[in-house]
Amino acid sequence: MIMRIFQVRTRPGKEAEFATFFHETAIPLMKGTDGIVEVLPGAPHPDTPREFCFVMVWRDLDALKAFVGKDYASPHIDPAEAELVEERTIRHYELVED
């Protein structure tokens, strides 16, 4: 399984608008995506009030590519968030199961 960690930092002053997008659009979209085994959304912490993240566990790389395309190492951007986000990072790991 593939663990995908997606982090965003909002533009200053866009936190509330992004939070609405995050809760009403992004979380339901990711939870309903075929090939995702688990979604762990992360909202801002007081020390990092502009940062949001997703930790997603994908069944396999083929399922991830089916959703984001062949260039899975680049952050997938919903047009609704493009103007709200200052920075995006994406990382992939092989999930270690006990």
Automatic annotation (TrEMBL):
<dbReference type="Pfam" id="PF03992">
    <property type="entry name" value="ABM"/>
</dbReference>
<protein>
    <submittedName>
        <fullName>Antibiotic biosynthesis monooxygenase family protein</fullName>
        <ecNumber>1.14.-.-</ecNumber>
    </submittedName>
</protein>
<dbReference type="GO" id="GO:0004497">
    <property type="term" value="F:monooxygenase activity"/>
</dbReference>
<feature type="domain" description="ABM">
    <location>
        <begin position="1"/>
        <end position="72"/>
    </location>
</feature>
<dbReference type="InterPro" id="IPR007138">
    <property type="entry name" value="ABM_dom"/>
</dbReference>
<dbReference type="InterPro" id="IPR011008">
    <property type="entry name" value="Dimeric_a/b-barrel"/>
</dbReference>
<keyword id="KW-0560">Oxidoreductase</keyword>
<keyword id="KW-0503">Monooxygenase</keyword>
